[in-house]
What we know:
alpha/beta, FAD/NAD(P)-binding domain, Enolase-like, domain 1, 3 domains, seven-stranded mixed sheet, five-stranded parallel sheet, binds flavin-adenine dinucleotide, binds 1,4-dihydronicotinamide adenine dinucleotide
Amino acid sequence: MxxxxxxxxxxxxxxxxxxxxxxxxxxxxTVIGAGxxxxxxxxxxxxxxxxxxxxxxxxxxxxxxxxxxxIPSKALLHATERLVEARDLxxxxxxxxxxxxxxxxxxxxxxxxxxxxxxxxxxxxxxxxQVTFRTGHASIKxxxxxxxxxxxVRTKRIVxxxxxxxxxxxxxxxxxKQIVTSTGALKLPHVPRHLxxxxxxxxxxxxxxxxxxxxxxxxIVEFADHIAPGFDRDMSKQLARSLQKLGIxxxxxxxxxxxxxxxxxxxxxxxxxxxxxxxxxxxxxCDTLLVATGxxxxxxxxxxxxxxxxxxxxxxxxxxxxxxxSCPGIYAxxxxxxxxxxxxxxxxxxxxxxxxxxxxPHHIRRDLIPGVIYTHPEVAMVxxxxxxxxxxxxxxxxxxxxxxxxxxxxxxxxxEGSVKILTCERTDTLLGIHIIGPSAGELIxxxxxxxxxxxxxxxxxxxxxxxxxxxxAVKEAALAAFDRPLNL
Length: 488
Ligand code: FAD
Ligand code: NAI
Protein backbone atom coordinates (compact mmCIF):
# COMPACT_ATOMS: atom_id res chain seq x y z
CA MET A 1 0.00 0.00 0.00
CA UNK A 2 2.94 2.33 0.71
CA UNK A 3 3.62 2.48 -3.01
CA UNK A 4 0.26 4.16 -3.72
CA UNK A 5 1.17 7.06 -1.46
CA UNK A 6 4.64 7.32 -2.95
CA UNK A 7 3.37 7.79 -6.50
CA UNK A 8 2.24 11.14 -7.87
CA UNK A 9 -1.52 11.68 -7.69
CA UNK A 10 -3.72 13.07 -10.45
CA UNK A 11 -3.39 16.49 -8.85
CA UNK A 12 0.38 16.32 -9.45
CA UNK A 13 -0.14 15.82 -13.18
CA UNK A 14 0.14 19.35 -14.47
CA UNK A 15 -1.44 20.53 -17.71
CA UNK A 16 1.19 21.16 -20.40
CA UNK A 17 1.93 24.74 -21.32
CA UNK A 18 0.17 26.17 -24.38
CA UNK A 19 3.25 26.38 -26.63
CA UNK A 20 5.89 23.85 -27.47
CA UNK A 21 9.34 25.38 -26.82
CA UNK A 22 11.91 25.72 -29.62
CA UNK A 23 15.48 24.45 -29.28
CA UNK A 24 16.77 27.95 -28.41
CA UNK A 25 14.99 27.75 -25.02
CA UNK A 26 16.44 25.95 -22.03
CA UNK A 27 14.82 22.59 -21.21
CA UNK A 28 14.34 21.19 -17.71
CA UNK A 29 15.19 17.71 -18.98
CA THR A 30 16.66 16.38 -22.22
CA VAL A 31 16.20 12.67 -22.86
CA ILE A 32 18.53 11.06 -25.41
CA GLY A 33 16.72 8.08 -26.92
CA ALA A 34 12.98 7.63 -27.48
CA GLY A 35 12.73 3.90 -26.71
CA UNK A 36 10.46 2.58 -23.93
CA UNK A 37 12.87 3.94 -21.30
CA UNK A 38 13.30 7.38 -22.87
CA UNK A 39 9.79 8.06 -24.13
CA UNK A 40 8.13 7.00 -20.87
CA UNK A 41 10.59 9.18 -18.92
CA UNK A 42 9.86 12.13 -21.24
CA UNK A 43 6.07 11.75 -21.06
CA UNK A 44 6.00 11.31 -17.29
CA UNK A 45 8.34 14.28 -16.71
CA UNK A 46 6.10 16.42 -18.95
CA UNK A 47 3.01 15.18 -17.06
CA UNK A 48 4.68 16.43 -13.91
CA UNK A 49 5.16 19.91 -15.41
CA UNK A 50 8.77 19.77 -16.65
CA UNK A 51 9.79 21.23 -20.01
CA UNK A 52 11.12 18.19 -21.88
CA UNK A 53 13.13 17.56 -25.04
CA UNK A 54 13.45 14.00 -26.35
CA UNK A 55 15.82 13.25 -29.23
CA UNK A 56 16.40 10.10 -31.26
CA UNK A 57 18.58 9.15 -34.21
CA UNK A 58 15.57 7.35 -35.66
CA UNK A 59 12.91 9.36 -37.45
CA UNK A 60 10.22 7.52 -35.51
CA UNK A 61 10.07 7.34 -31.73
CA UNK A 62 9.64 3.99 -29.95
CA UNK A 63 13.25 2.74 -30.00
CA UNK A 64 14.25 -0.86 -30.57
CA UNK A 65 11.10 -2.15 -28.92
CA UNK A 66 8.52 -0.61 -31.23
CA UNK A 67 10.56 -0.44 -34.44
CA UNK A 68 12.70 -3.61 -34.59
CA UNK A 69 12.05 -5.53 -31.34
CA UNK A 70 9.07 -6.45 -29.21
CA ILE A 71 6.26 -5.28 -31.47
CA PRO A 72 7.33 -6.59 -34.91
CA SER A 73 8.54 -9.88 -33.39
CA LYS A 74 5.24 -10.39 -31.56
CA ALA A 75 3.28 -9.53 -34.73
CA LEU A 76 5.12 -12.32 -36.59
CA LEU A 77 4.90 -14.73 -33.64
CA HIS A 78 1.15 -14.16 -33.36
CA ALA A 79 0.53 -14.52 -37.11
CA THR A 80 2.59 -17.71 -37.46
CA GLU A 81 1.06 -19.23 -34.33
CA ARG A 82 -2.40 -18.68 -35.87
CA LEU A 83 -1.10 -20.29 -39.09
CA VAL A 84 -0.09 -23.47 -37.25
CA GLU A 85 -3.35 -23.43 -35.28
CA ALA A 86 -5.45 -23.10 -38.43
CA ARG A 87 -3.50 -25.88 -40.13
CA ASP A 88 -3.09 -28.37 -37.28
CA LEU A 89 -5.72 -27.57 -34.67
CA UNK A 90 -8.79 -26.34 -36.57
CA UNK A 91 -9.55 -29.74 -38.15
CA UNK A 92 -9.45 -31.28 -34.64
CA UNK A 93 -11.93 -28.66 -33.45
CA UNK A 94 -14.23 -29.36 -36.38
CA UNK A 95 -13.35 -26.31 -38.44
CA UNK A 96 -12.74 -26.92 -42.16
CA UNK A 97 -11.12 -24.05 -43.99
CA UNK A 98 -9.49 -25.72 -46.99
CA UNK A 99 -5.79 -25.35 -47.67
CA UNK A 100 -4.09 -23.09 -45.13
CA UNK A 101 -0.98 -21.35 -46.38
CA UNK A 102 1.11 -18.33 -45.51
CA UNK A 103 1.32 -15.19 -47.65
CA UNK A 104 4.69 -13.90 -46.46
CA UNK A 105 4.46 -10.52 -48.20
CA UNK A 106 1.03 -9.86 -46.64
CA UNK A 107 2.25 -11.04 -43.24
CA UNK A 108 5.22 -8.65 -43.41
CA UNK A 109 2.98 -5.81 -44.59
CA UNK A 110 0.65 -6.43 -41.63
CA UNK A 111 3.65 -6.37 -39.26
CA UNK A 112 4.89 -3.11 -40.82
CA UNK A 113 1.42 -1.54 -40.50
CA UNK A 114 1.29 -2.54 -36.79
CA UNK A 115 4.73 -0.98 -36.22
CA UNK A 116 3.90 2.24 -38.01
CA UNK A 117 0.58 2.66 -36.15
CA UNK A 118 2.25 1.91 -32.81
CA UNK A 119 5.07 4.42 -33.28
CA UNK A 120 2.46 7.03 -34.23
CA UNK A 121 0.99 6.42 -30.78
CA UNK A 122 4.23 7.68 -29.19
CA UNK A 123 4.21 10.77 -31.44
CA UNK A 124 0.63 11.37 -30.29
CA UNK A 125 1.67 11.16 -26.61
CA UNK A 126 4.56 13.60 -27.21
CA UNK A 127 2.11 16.03 -28.80
CA UNK A 128 -0.50 15.54 -26.08
CA UNK A 129 1.96 16.27 -23.26
CA GLN A 130 3.99 18.84 -25.25
CA VAL A 131 7.25 16.91 -25.23
CA THR A 132 9.48 18.44 -27.93
CA PHE A 133 10.73 15.59 -30.15
CA ARG A 134 13.65 15.98 -32.56
CA THR A 135 15.40 13.51 -34.85
CA GLY A 136 19.19 13.58 -34.87
CA HIS A 137 22.35 12.24 -33.29
CA ALA A 138 22.94 13.69 -29.82
CA SER A 139 26.18 13.99 -27.91
CA ILE A 140 26.80 15.55 -24.51
CA LYS A 141 29.01 18.63 -24.30
CA UNK A 142 28.50 19.25 -20.59
CA UNK A 143 25.84 18.38 -17.95
CA UNK A 144 23.84 21.43 -19.11
CA UNK A 145 24.35 21.21 -22.87
CA UNK A 146 23.79 18.64 -25.58
CA UNK A 147 24.82 18.88 -29.20
CA UNK A 148 22.13 17.76 -31.63
CA UNK A 149 23.48 17.39 -35.16
CA UNK A 150 25.86 20.32 -34.54
CA UNK A 151 23.34 22.54 -32.73
CA UNK A 152 23.87 23.27 -29.01
CA VAL A 153 20.80 22.92 -26.80
CA ARG A 154 20.75 24.13 -23.16
CA THR A 155 19.19 21.86 -20.55
CA LYS A 156 19.16 21.56 -16.77
CA ARG A 157 19.46 17.78 -16.74
CA ILE A 158 20.27 15.00 -19.20
CA VAL A 159 18.92 11.44 -19.33
CA UNK A 160 20.84 8.86 -21.36
CA UNK A 161 18.37 6.26 -22.69
CA UNK A 162 20.31 5.14 -25.74
CA UNK A 163 19.44 1.45 -25.36
CA UNK A 164 21.26 -1.45 -26.96
CA UNK A 165 22.28 -2.96 -30.30
CA UNK A 166 22.97 -6.57 -31.36
CA UNK A 167 26.32 -7.96 -30.18
CA UNK A 168 28.34 -9.28 -33.08
CA UNK A 169 30.53 -12.37 -33.27
CA UNK A 170 34.21 -11.78 -34.00
CA UNK A 171 35.09 -12.46 -37.64
CA UNK A 172 31.48 -12.72 -38.81
CA UNK A 173 30.32 -9.83 -40.95
CA UNK A 174 26.64 -8.96 -40.72
CA UNK A 175 25.06 -7.97 -44.08
CA UNK A 176 21.41 -8.16 -42.85
CA LYS A 177 20.61 -10.29 -45.91
CA GLN A 178 22.38 -13.67 -45.64
CA ILE A 179 23.99 -13.10 -42.24
CA VAL A 180 21.47 -11.23 -40.15
CA THR A 181 20.77 -9.93 -36.67
CA SER A 182 17.21 -9.87 -35.32
CA THR A 183 16.60 -6.71 -37.41
CA GLY A 184 17.24 -8.57 -40.67
CA ALA A 185 15.46 -11.71 -39.44
CA LEU A 186 12.27 -9.66 -38.96
CA LYS A 187 12.10 -8.78 -42.65
CA LEU A 188 13.49 -11.68 -44.69
CA PRO A 189 11.80 -11.52 -48.10
CA HIS A 190 11.71 -15.33 -48.51
CA VAL A 191 11.44 -18.27 -46.14
CA PRO A 192 15.01 -19.64 -45.81
CA ARG A 193 15.56 -23.27 -46.75
CA HIS A 194 17.87 -23.74 -43.79
CA LEU A 195 18.23 -21.07 -41.11
CA UNK A 196 21.07 -21.54 -38.64
CA UNK A 197 20.77 -19.45 -35.50
CA UNK A 198 23.70 -18.78 -33.18
CA UNK A 199 22.33 -18.50 -29.62
CA UNK A 200 19.37 -20.23 -27.95
CA UNK A 201 18.36 -17.13 -25.98
CA UNK A 202 15.07 -15.28 -26.27
CA UNK A 203 15.68 -13.95 -29.80
CA UNK A 204 16.90 -17.30 -31.17
CA UNK A 205 13.94 -19.17 -29.72
CA UNK A 206 11.28 -16.63 -30.76
CA UNK A 207 12.53 -15.92 -34.29
CA UNK A 208 13.49 -19.59 -34.75
CA UNK A 209 9.83 -20.43 -34.00
CA UNK A 210 8.59 -17.86 -36.53
CA UNK A 211 10.68 -19.20 -39.42
CA UNK A 212 10.18 -22.86 -38.50
CA UNK A 213 6.42 -22.33 -38.52
CA UNK A 214 6.78 -20.78 -41.97
CA UNK A 215 8.54 -23.90 -43.20
CA UNK A 216 12.30 -23.29 -42.80
CA UNK A 217 14.61 -25.99 -41.45
CA UNK A 218 15.95 -24.39 -38.28
CA UNK A 219 19.11 -25.35 -36.39
CA ILE A 220 20.04 -23.45 -33.24
CA VAL A 221 23.70 -23.64 -32.19
CA GLU A 222 24.16 -22.89 -28.50
CA PHE A 223 27.33 -22.55 -26.50
CA ALA A 224 25.76 -23.68 -23.19
CA ASP A 225 24.30 -27.09 -22.30
CA HIS A 226 20.75 -25.70 -22.14
CA ILE A 227 18.47 -23.22 -23.88
CA ALA A 228 16.74 -20.09 -22.48
CA PRO A 229 19.48 -18.77 -20.16
CA GLY A 230 18.24 -17.21 -16.93
CA PHE A 231 14.99 -19.21 -16.86
CA ASP A 232 14.26 -22.05 -14.43
CA ARG A 233 15.92 -25.21 -15.75
CA ASP A 234 12.69 -27.27 -15.63
CA MET A 235 11.05 -24.71 -17.91
CA SER A 236 14.02 -24.66 -20.26
CA LYS A 237 13.95 -28.49 -20.54
CA GLN A 238 10.19 -28.53 -21.24
CA LEU A 239 10.55 -25.74 -23.81
CA ALA A 240 13.38 -27.57 -25.59
CA ARG A 241 11.12 -30.65 -25.90
CA SER A 242 8.23 -28.58 -27.28
CA LEU A 243 10.39 -26.75 -29.79
CA GLN A 244 11.99 -30.03 -30.90
CA LYS A 245 8.43 -31.30 -31.56
CA LEU A 246 7.91 -28.21 -33.75
CA GLY A 247 10.98 -29.37 -35.69
CA ILE A 248 13.71 -27.09 -34.36
CA UNK A 249 17.06 -28.86 -34.15
CA UNK A 250 19.31 -27.86 -31.22
CA UNK A 251 23.10 -28.20 -31.21
CA UNK A 252 23.96 -27.57 -27.56
CA UNK A 253 27.50 -27.34 -26.14
CA UNK A 254 28.54 -26.11 -29.55
CA UNK A 255 30.22 -22.96 -30.80
CA UNK A 256 30.47 -21.39 -34.23
CA UNK A 257 34.10 -20.87 -35.20
CA UNK A 258 33.87 -19.57 -38.75
CA UNK A 259 31.37 -18.66 -41.44
CA UNK A 260 32.27 -18.74 -45.15
CA UNK A 261 30.13 -17.33 -47.93
CA UNK A 262 29.70 -19.59 -50.96
CA UNK A 263 27.97 -18.73 -54.25
CA UNK A 264 24.95 -20.77 -53.19
CA UNK A 265 24.88 -20.19 -49.42
CA UNK A 266 26.95 -20.30 -46.27
CA UNK A 267 29.26 -22.82 -44.65
CA UNK A 268 29.11 -22.59 -40.87
CA UNK A 269 31.95 -24.32 -39.03
CA UNK A 270 31.11 -25.50 -35.54
CA UNK A 271 33.03 -27.29 -32.82
CA UNK A 272 32.29 -28.47 -29.26
CA UNK A 273 32.35 -25.61 -26.75
CA UNK A 274 35.44 -25.45 -24.56
CA UNK A 275 33.57 -26.60 -21.41
CA UNK A 276 32.99 -30.05 -22.98
CA UNK A 277 36.73 -30.72 -23.37
CA UNK A 278 35.88 -32.40 -26.68
CA UNK A 279 37.54 -31.56 -29.99
CA UNK A 280 36.69 -31.67 -33.68
CA UNK A 281 35.06 -29.49 -36.29
CA UNK A 282 31.99 -29.94 -38.43
CA UNK A 283 30.77 -27.94 -41.41
CA UNK A 284 27.06 -27.10 -41.60
CA UNK A 285 25.40 -25.64 -44.65
CA CYS A 286 22.65 -23.03 -44.71
CA ASP A 287 21.31 -20.13 -46.76
CA THR A 288 20.69 -17.75 -43.82
CA LEU A 289 22.50 -17.26 -40.51
CA LEU A 290 20.97 -15.34 -37.60
CA VAL A 291 23.42 -14.13 -34.97
CA ALA A 292 21.50 -13.86 -31.69
CA THR A 293 24.24 -13.92 -29.07
CA GLY A 294 23.02 -11.05 -26.90
CA UNK A 295 22.93 -7.26 -27.10
CA UNK A 296 25.40 -4.57 -26.08
CA UNK A 297 24.73 -1.13 -24.60
CA UNK A 298 24.93 1.81 -27.05
CA UNK A 299 27.26 4.54 -25.76
CA UNK A 300 29.48 5.39 -28.74
CA UNK A 301 29.51 9.00 -29.93
CA UNK A 302 27.90 10.34 -26.75
CA UNK A 303 31.09 11.92 -25.39
CA UNK A 304 31.08 9.92 -22.14
CA UNK A 305 34.88 9.75 -21.89
CA UNK A 306 35.32 13.54 -21.63
CA UNK A 307 32.69 13.65 -18.86
CA UNK A 308 34.30 10.72 -16.99
CA UNK A 309 31.04 8.75 -16.97
CA UNK A 310 31.93 5.34 -15.57
CA UNK A 311 30.96 2.08 -17.28
CA UNK A 312 31.21 -1.54 -16.15
CA UNK A 313 33.17 -4.29 -17.90
CA UNK A 314 30.30 -5.01 -20.30
CA UNK A 315 30.04 -1.32 -21.24
CA UNK A 316 26.88 -0.52 -19.25
CA UNK A 317 26.76 2.94 -17.66
CA UNK A 318 27.04 2.58 -13.89
CA UNK A 319 24.23 4.31 -11.94
CA UNK A 320 23.17 4.59 -8.29
CA UNK A 321 19.66 3.97 -6.88
CA UNK A 322 18.53 7.40 -8.18
CA UNK A 323 19.86 6.75 -11.71
CA UNK A 324 22.78 9.21 -11.21
CA UNK A 325 25.80 8.47 -13.37
CA SER A 326 29.25 9.40 -12.06
CA CYS A 327 28.73 12.87 -13.61
CA PRO A 328 26.28 15.06 -11.60
CA GLY A 329 23.23 16.18 -13.62
CA ILE A 330 23.46 13.22 -16.02
CA TYR A 331 21.26 10.17 -15.49
CA ALA A 332 20.88 6.86 -17.33
CA UNK A 333 18.12 4.24 -17.71
CA UNK A 334 17.08 1.19 -19.76
CA UNK A 335 19.25 -1.23 -21.72
CA UNK A 336 22.26 1.10 -21.45
CA UNK A 337 22.47 0.45 -17.67
CA UNK A 338 22.94 -2.95 -15.94
CA UNK A 339 20.00 -5.34 -15.45
CA UNK A 340 17.73 -7.33 -17.74
CA UNK A 341 17.46 -5.84 -21.24
CA UNK A 342 13.69 -5.68 -21.25
CA UNK A 343 11.24 -3.02 -22.38
CA UNK A 344 9.17 -3.11 -19.18
CA UNK A 345 12.32 -2.75 -17.05
CA UNK A 346 13.31 0.31 -19.14
CA UNK A 347 9.78 1.72 -18.72
CA UNK A 348 9.81 1.24 -14.93
CA UNK A 349 13.13 3.07 -14.79
CA UNK A 350 11.88 5.88 -17.04
CA UNK A 351 8.81 6.41 -14.88
CA UNK A 352 10.75 6.27 -11.63
CA UNK A 353 13.44 8.67 -12.87
CA UNK A 354 10.87 11.22 -14.10
CA UNK A 355 9.23 11.14 -10.67
CA UNK A 356 12.63 11.60 -9.06
CA UNK A 357 13.47 14.57 -11.32
CA UNK A 358 10.15 16.21 -10.41
CA UNK A 359 10.83 15.71 -6.71
CA UNK A 360 8.54 12.71 -6.14
CA PRO A 361 9.54 9.48 -4.41
CA HIS A 362 10.04 6.41 -6.59
CA HIS A 363 10.42 2.70 -6.11
CA ILE A 364 11.36 -0.29 -8.27
CA ARG A 365 11.36 -3.94 -7.15
CA ARG A 366 14.31 -5.05 -9.26
CA ASP A 367 13.93 -8.62 -8.01
CA LEU A 368 10.37 -8.80 -9.41
CA ILE A 369 10.80 -7.94 -13.07
CA PRO A 370 8.98 -10.65 -15.04
CA GLY A 371 10.57 -12.41 -18.01
CA VAL A 372 8.59 -13.94 -20.89
CA ILE A 373 9.51 -15.98 -23.97
CA TYR A 374 6.72 -15.66 -26.53
CA THR A 375 7.10 -19.11 -28.09
CA HIS A 376 4.41 -21.81 -28.07
CA PRO A 377 4.11 -22.81 -25.32
CA GLU A 378 5.00 -19.46 -23.76
CA VAL A 379 7.38 -19.32 -20.82
CA ALA A 380 7.06 -16.73 -18.06
CA MET A 381 8.80 -16.21 -14.77
CA VAL A 382 9.01 -13.83 -11.85
CA UNK A 383 11.29 -14.03 -8.82
CA UNK A 384 13.86 -16.72 -8.08
CA UNK A 385 14.62 -19.86 -10.10
CA UNK A 386 15.03 -23.18 -8.29
CA UNK A 387 18.72 -23.16 -9.27
CA UNK A 388 19.28 -19.77 -7.60
CA UNK A 389 17.52 -20.94 -4.41
CA UNK A 390 19.74 -24.03 -4.32
CA UNK A 391 22.81 -21.85 -4.78
CA UNK A 392 21.72 -19.76 -1.77
CA UNK A 393 21.07 -22.94 0.32
CA UNK A 394 17.49 -21.71 0.80
CA UNK A 395 14.89 -24.09 2.21
CA UNK A 396 11.93 -24.03 -0.11
CA UNK A 397 8.85 -25.93 -1.21
CA UNK A 398 7.75 -26.62 -4.77
CA UNK A 399 4.15 -26.77 -5.97
CA UNK A 400 3.48 -27.82 -9.57
CA UNK A 401 0.35 -28.26 -11.64
CA UNK A 402 0.07 -29.42 -15.27
CA UNK A 403 -2.20 -27.64 -17.80
CA UNK A 404 -3.30 -31.15 -18.83
CA UNK A 405 -5.44 -31.14 -15.66
CA UNK A 406 -6.87 -27.64 -16.28
CA UNK A 407 -10.40 -27.59 -17.72
CA UNK A 408 -9.95 -24.48 -19.86
CA UNK A 409 -6.67 -25.69 -21.35
CA UNK A 410 -8.41 -28.96 -22.24
CA UNK A 411 -11.38 -27.13 -23.77
CA UNK A 412 -8.94 -25.03 -25.81
CA UNK A 413 -7.00 -28.16 -26.94
CA UNK A 414 -3.86 -26.44 -25.56
CA UNK A 415 -2.61 -28.52 -22.66
CA GLU A 416 1.16 -28.44 -23.01
CA GLY A 417 3.05 -27.17 -19.95
CA SER A 418 2.74 -26.57 -16.25
CA VAL A 419 2.95 -24.04 -13.41
CA LYS A 420 5.71 -24.27 -10.81
CA ILE A 421 5.59 -22.24 -7.61
CA LEU A 422 8.53 -21.93 -5.22
CA THR A 423 7.81 -20.83 -1.66
CA CYS A 424 9.73 -20.34 1.57
CA GLU A 425 9.42 -23.59 3.53
CA ARG A 426 9.05 -21.75 6.85
CA THR A 427 6.71 -18.86 5.94
CA ASP A 428 5.00 -19.99 2.67
CA THR A 429 6.04 -16.63 1.13
CA LEU A 430 6.21 -16.75 -2.68
CA LEU A 431 9.82 -16.83 -3.89
CA GLY A 432 9.46 -17.58 -7.59
CA ILE A 433 6.79 -18.53 -10.13
CA HIS A 434 7.52 -20.28 -13.42
CA ILE A 435 4.90 -20.99 -16.03
CA ILE A 436 5.23 -22.81 -19.33
CA GLY A 437 1.99 -23.06 -21.22
CA PRO A 438 -0.85 -21.18 -22.87
CA SER A 439 -0.88 -17.42 -22.14
CA ALA A 440 1.93 -17.78 -19.60
CA GLY A 441 2.93 -14.14 -20.24
CA GLU A 442 -0.54 -12.96 -19.19
CA LEU A 443 -0.84 -15.41 -16.28
CA ILE A 444 2.41 -14.24 -14.69
CA UNK A 445 0.84 -10.83 -13.84
CA UNK A 446 -1.15 -12.28 -10.94
CA UNK A 447 1.76 -13.91 -9.08
CA UNK A 448 3.95 -10.87 -9.88
CA UNK A 449 1.39 -8.61 -8.22
CA UNK A 450 1.06 -11.04 -5.31
CA UNK A 451 4.84 -11.08 -4.81
CA UNK A 452 4.92 -7.25 -4.85
CA UNK A 453 2.60 -7.41 -1.86
CA UNK A 454 4.67 -10.08 -0.10
CA UNK A 455 1.93 -12.71 -0.54
CA UNK A 456 2.12 -16.39 0.34
CA UNK A 457 1.06 -19.39 -1.75
CA UNK A 458 -1.94 -19.70 0.57
CA UNK A 459 -3.00 -16.14 -0.35
CA UNK A 460 -3.23 -17.16 -4.02
CA UNK A 461 -4.75 -20.53 -3.24
CA UNK A 462 -7.54 -19.01 -1.12
CA UNK A 463 -8.42 -16.32 -3.70
CA UNK A 464 -11.42 -17.36 -5.79
CA UNK A 465 -10.38 -17.84 -9.43
CA UNK A 466 -13.05 -17.90 -12.15
CA UNK A 467 -13.86 -21.25 -13.73
CA UNK A 468 -12.98 -22.38 -16.32
CA UNK A 469 -9.83 -20.26 -16.70
CA UNK A 470 -6.17 -20.98 -17.22
CA UNK A 471 -5.53 -18.99 -14.04
CA UNK A 472 -6.95 -21.90 -12.04
CA ALA A 473 -3.67 -23.71 -12.83
CA VAL A 474 -1.83 -20.98 -10.88
CA LYS A 475 -4.24 -21.43 -7.95
CA GLU A 476 -3.78 -25.23 -8.05
CA ALA A 477 0.02 -24.90 -8.11
CA ALA A 478 -0.26 -22.57 -5.09
CA LEU A 479 -2.44 -25.18 -3.35
CA ALA A 480 0.18 -27.79 -4.21
CA ALA A 481 2.90 -25.63 -2.65
CA PHE A 482 1.24 -25.13 0.73
CA ASP A 483 -1.05 -28.16 0.97
CA ARG A 484 -2.19 -30.27 -1.99
CA PRO A 485 -3.92 -29.59 -5.30
CA LEU A 486 -7.64 -30.39 -5.62
CA ASN A 487 -7.97 -31.42 -9.26
CA LEU A 488 -5.01 -33.76 -9.44
P1 FAD B 1 15.97 1.32 -27.03
O1 FAD B 1 14.61 0.81 -27.24
O2 FAD B 1 17.09 0.57 -27.67
O3 FAD B 1 15.97 2.82 -27.53
C1 FAD B 1 17.12 3.61 -27.56
C2 FAD B 1 16.97 4.68 -28.61
O4 FAD B 1 18.06 5.59 -28.48
C3 FAD B 1 17.01 4.17 -30.04
O5 FAD B 1 15.82 4.52 -30.73
C4 FAD B 1 18.25 4.85 -30.65
O6 FAD B 1 18.02 5.26 -31.99
C5 FAD B 1 18.41 6.05 -29.75
N1 FAD B 1 19.80 6.55 -29.68
C6 FAD B 1 20.93 5.86 -29.35
N2 FAD B 1 21.99 6.68 -29.33
C7 FAD B 1 21.54 7.91 -29.67
C8 FAD B 1 22.16 9.18 -29.82
N3 FAD B 1 23.47 9.35 -29.59
N4 FAD B 1 21.38 10.22 -30.19
C9 FAD B 1 20.06 10.07 -30.42
N5 FAD B 1 19.42 8.89 -30.26
C10 FAD B 1 20.15 7.83 -29.89
N6 FAD B 1 11.80 -6.70 -24.48
C11 FAD B 1 10.67 -7.05 -23.82
O7 FAD B 1 10.47 -6.65 -22.68
N7 FAD B 1 9.74 -7.87 -24.41
C12 FAD B 1 9.89 -8.34 -25.66
O8 FAD B 1 9.04 -9.07 -26.16
C13 FAD B 1 11.06 -7.98 -26.36
N8 FAD B 1 11.27 -8.42 -27.62
C14 FAD B 1 12.39 -8.04 -28.28
C15 FAD B 1 12.58 -8.55 -29.58
C16 FAD B 1 13.71 -8.20 -30.27
C17 FAD B 1 13.91 -8.75 -31.68
C18 FAD B 1 14.67 -7.32 -29.70
C19 FAD B 1 15.89 -6.92 -30.46
C20 FAD B 1 14.48 -6.83 -28.42
C21 FAD B 1 13.34 -7.19 -27.70
N9 FAD B 1 13.13 -6.74 -26.40
C22 FAD B 1 12.00 -7.13 -25.74
C23 FAD B 1 14.07 -5.86 -25.72
C24 FAD B 1 13.60 -4.40 -25.79
O9 FAD B 1 13.41 -4.02 -27.13
C25 FAD B 1 14.59 -3.49 -25.11
O10 FAD B 1 14.84 -3.96 -23.81
C26 FAD B 1 14.08 -2.08 -25.03
O11 FAD B 1 13.79 -1.55 -26.31
C27 FAD B 1 15.08 -1.17 -24.31
O12 FAD B 1 14.57 0.13 -24.23
P2 FAD B 1 15.52 1.41 -24.14
O13 FAD B 1 14.60 2.57 -24.09
O14 FAD B 1 16.49 1.22 -23.06
O15 FAD B 1 16.36 1.43 -25.50
P1 NAI C 1 20.38 -13.77 -24.80
O1 NAI C 1 21.36 -13.22 -23.88
O2 NAI C 1 18.98 -14.01 -24.35
O3 NAI C 1 20.89 -15.18 -25.38
C1 NAI C 1 22.09 -15.30 -26.07
C2 NAI C 1 22.44 -16.77 -26.16
O4 NAI C 1 23.53 -16.91 -27.06
C3 NAI C 1 22.89 -17.38 -24.83
O5 NAI C 1 22.20 -18.58 -24.61
C4 NAI C 1 24.39 -17.60 -25.01
O6 NAI C 1 24.87 -18.72 -24.29
C5 NAI C 1 24.46 -17.84 -26.51
N1 NAI C 1 25.78 -17.53 -27.09
C6 NAI C 1 26.54 -16.43 -26.87
N2 NAI C 1 27.67 -16.50 -27.62
C7 NAI C 1 27.60 -17.65 -28.33
C8 NAI C 1 28.44 -18.27 -29.29
N3 NAI C 1 29.59 -17.71 -29.69
N4 NAI C 1 28.06 -19.44 -29.83
C9 NAI C 1 26.88 -20.02 -29.44
N5 NAI C 1 26.05 -19.47 -28.54
C10 NAI C 1 26.39 -18.30 -28.00
O7 NAI C 1 20.43 -12.80 -26.08
P2 NAI C 1 19.44 -12.59 -27.29
O8 NAI C 1 18.59 -13.78 -27.52
O9 NAI C 1 20.31 -12.11 -28.39
O10 NAI C 1 18.51 -11.41 -26.78
C11 NAI C 1 19.09 -10.12 -26.46
C12 NAI C 1 18.25 -9.40 -25.47
O11 NAI C 1 17.00 -9.03 -26.01
C13 NAI C 1 17.99 -10.22 -24.23
O12 NAI C 1 18.58 -9.57 -23.14
C14 NAI C 1 16.52 -10.28 -24.09
O13 NAI C 1 16.13 -9.96 -22.80
C15 NAI C 1 15.98 -9.24 -25.07
N6 NAI C 1 14.81 -9.84 -25.72
C16 NAI C 1 13.71 -10.09 -24.95
C17 NAI C 1 12.62 -10.71 -25.48
C18 NAI C 1 11.47 -11.00 -24.60
O14 NAI C 1 11.40 -10.45 -23.51
N7 NAI C 1 10.56 -11.86 -24.99
C19 NAI C 1 12.58 -11.12 -26.88
C20 NAI C 1 13.80 -10.85 -27.58
C21 NAI C 1 14.86 -10.21 -27.01
